[in-house]
Design goal:
Elements: H1 18-30, H2 45-57, E1 61-65, H3 68-78, E2 86-90, H4 96-103, E3 107-111, H5 121-131, E4 135-139, H6 148-158, E5 161-165, E6 173-174, E7 177-178, E8 185-189, E9 202-206, H7 209-220, H8 240-243, H9 253-264, H10 266-285, E10 299-300, E11 305-309, H11 315-327, E12 333-334, H12 359-366, E13 368-372, H13 379-397
Parallel strand pairs: 2-3, 2-4, 4-5, 5-8
Antiparallel strand pairs: 1-9, 6-7, 6-10, 8-9, 11-13, 12-13
The structure holds pyridoxal-5'-phosphate.
Pyridoxal-5'-phosphate (PLP) binds at residues 67-69, 93-94, 96-97, 139, 141, 165, 167-168, 189, 191, 194, 202.
Amino acid sequence: MMKSKFTGSFTQQEPIPESAIEAAVEVMRSGRLHRYNEAPGEKSQTSILEMEFAAMSGSKYCLAVASCGSAIATALRSAGANAGERVLTNAFTLAPVPGAIASLGCVPALVEINEDLVVDLGDLRKKISETSARIFLASHMRGHICDMDEVSSICERAGVILIEDCAHTMGSRWNGVWSGRHGLAACYSTQTYKHANSGEGGLIISDDPDFMARAIMLSGSYMFYERHLASPCSAHFKNARYDTPNCSARMDNLRAAILRPQLADLDRRCQAWNERYRIVEARLSRTEGVKLPARPMAENFVGSSIQFRLPEFTKEEIVAVIERCAARGVILKWFGQSEPEGFTSRYDSWRYFDSGRCPSTDRILASLLDMRLPLTFSLRDCEDLSAIIAEAVGETRHGLDLGNRCRSNVG
Ligand SMILES: *Cc1c(COP(=O)(O)O)cnc(C)c1O
């Protein structure tokens, strides 16, 4: 019997909404793409975006920058990270996170994750005392949020500054609180594969006026900082304007114009992702051999991708599942493969710093698979693709699809 093939594209996001295209065209017609190139009396698109995002997130201040990676570097520097210093972050995260730390001459200190793909709080306490690090950059990798009430209190008691990497949690909440509102500051991504799409882009939020004044100067505001509308008053720039280097990481009006209508539509998009996530999750949770991360009630996540493990499978069997899925059009990423490919998220491919070993993280990543759920997939698509995965797992479990492969224990 011919097996059905899935034909959706895992890298195809929705088109940019027409209203955003119109806004972008208007900015291009004006020629004023640079955020400080304003007509008399005009508020720039970038400044308006910052006001709108501050209002959405409930933060006092917001700054738009060139990417989430540059947002993280800016936030760390503004929080006082100095060259040579260790900065704590999750062992499972995306390459720009340790990259941002390293860009300041700081050294990532990796904290283990647990089977639910969030930071292991016991290891966080241990690493805080072992490293005496002053900053924890909590990376909500693939949208998994750890117990933020507990993290906040651990950091507070230890005098550690908490900065959140919310690249995958724009629109998420922990216990009703917006993801990104638990520490000194948070960084978001508007890169194509995240929750709003301007190609590249980043946002920083904070309630701390001196932190934000430094961040604005660092982002490359020159002496135009008073044109920012979601910013602290000029008194906070008194020293910052002279003491802070211009690291040129601004957002431009074109991207801001593209983002504003998308952010206005964020809740609907988040719901649409979650409908898709729940369909795939339900099918996989009924599939023997598949282990899904627990998603606590307090975690109001955005399921723009799904992760699952095959903990009892050998490497060969995992490869067989991936191949069987790929043959039917379902593309899975595997964090256990030996050589880095595409977007890297395994710490042993970042050899520019001495990471040490994280044995729990290694064990978890060895059987961890990952799949994007773009909104161009219909609910029916999600049913179809999860059935394909379930079949591939089932056939592999029963040794049906190993073909000519010799299983070492068969003889
Ligand atoms: C994408 C991503 C980033 C970096 O975002 P850019 O905007 O591409 O720089 C940081 N952290 C995580 C977890 C990400 O997924």
